[in-house]
Amino acid sequence: MKKTTITPGVPWLDTKGERIQAHGACVYFEDGVYYWIGEDKSHTRKKGKLWTWGVKLYSSSDLCNWTDEGHIIEPRPDDKKSVFHPNRRLDRPHILKNEKTGKYVLWLKYCDKAHATVLTADSLRGPYTLIHEELHPFGTKFGDFDLAKDEQTGQGYLFFEADHDKVIGCKLTDDYCNVEGEPTYIYRNMKPPFTREGITHFVRNGKHYILSSGMTGYVPNPSESAVADDFLGPYTVQGDPHVDDASSASFNSQISGVFRIEGTDRFVAIADRWVPGYVMTRERYEILLRAISQHSDRSVKVSFRDMVTLMTSPMMGSADTSIADYVWLPIQWEGDMPQIRWRDSWDPTEV
Questions:
Q1: Lateral strand order in the sheet of 254-260
Q2: Cα–Cα separations (whole angstroms), residue 190 to 30, 105, 161, 163, 235
Q3: Residue 42 CB neighbours (<10 A)
Q4: Model confidence over 139-167: pLDDT tens digits?
Q5: How many Cα atoms within 13 Å fall on the side-chain side of residue 311?
């Protein structure tokens, strides 16, 4: 039976009845079809060595029913030297179409060696050719990121978390395969858990927005919105866009992208609920805030209970993300401030 609504926070099955595997994702629209591109976590078990089983592609015409189109990046489990071996920590695939070259440009983040990998293809479905296997823009460690382009000029942009203490915005080269010019610092001089990651950029009514999360592993935390009049800012922090969020943790999820429903002025924030069984509360978040921040701020006092809570929480490499769920919610507005409210179910044709 075809779905007519999106139900956040529950297992989302494709048209074959199998769990969708497309995490840390972006949504791309072309020729009347939406494409959902993300990490295949089907083999990622708690404390296992396998991280990402390649990059999956799904297609849909209605945003509710998604067809598995297979991998655009296949895993290479038999080649331990390959950048696509499943124990390499491949994350957050994002794609731009370069109108000048006709190429689809795919950027990947690797959190094991903190670098970007860049590939290109003549078709969205690939095959993709490796352009840069290990890229460190401006000599930094490369973290969560997003890509954007000026639809009028074709200029490409990159926004990324760098060195666990800053967020950089910059221009891309004409082919979108590298960075050029000088870095712009959107955030800087921050330490976990306040460092911004989960970087997401979008444009509405000439305003540029960056949504981000704090840095607490797979434990969700409050999001933050910042707004500017241009791609590279300067950006002004607006606060947490999640309204009436009792979890104090972005409805127990982390945003990976925002896209516009074609032909409308409606935007959707897409997020991962990495560990569905780990229910976040305001009290638990405040404990983890203390326990993590004391590593960089010795004035913060923590208890034994605080440290036990931290040690038993799902950090990197200690979570079964093969059963991660998705939290897709429409964005509403109060003036220029984005607002995300919880909905048990919603119809993308009516928001």
A1: 254-260, 267-273, 325-334, 337-340
A2: 38, 30, 11, 10, 16
A3: 17
A4: 999 999 999 999 999 999 999 999 999 99
A5: 6
User: For residue 327, is it left (φ>0), alpha (ψ between -120 and 50) or beta?
Assistant: beta
Whole-prediction pTM: 0.96
Return phi, psi of residue 17, to 5°.
85, 15
Query: At a CB cut-off of 8 Å and minimum separation 6, what does 129 contact?
Result: 119, 120, 121
Residue corresponding to tokens 């590279």: 232
| DSSP-derived 3-state class of residue 304 | helix
What amino acid occupies position 51? W
Q: Beta strand 156-162 with 166-172: parallel, antiparallel or unpaired?
A: antiparallel
Give residue for tokens 């590593």: 295
For residue 31, give every residue at least 6 positions away whose Cβ sits within 8 Å of its Cβ, in sequence order, or none. Answer: none
Pairing of strands 337-340, 104-110: unpaired
Task: Give the β-pairing of 67-73 and 55-60.
Answer: antiparallel
Angle, alpha carbons 338-288-313 (nearest 5°):
105
Q: Closest Cα partner for 93 from 130, 139, 146, 132?
A: 146
* Each residue's pLDDT tens digit, 273-323: 999 998 899 899 999 889 999 888 889 899 999 898 888 888 766 678 999
Number of Cβ within a 10 Å radius of residue 79: 10
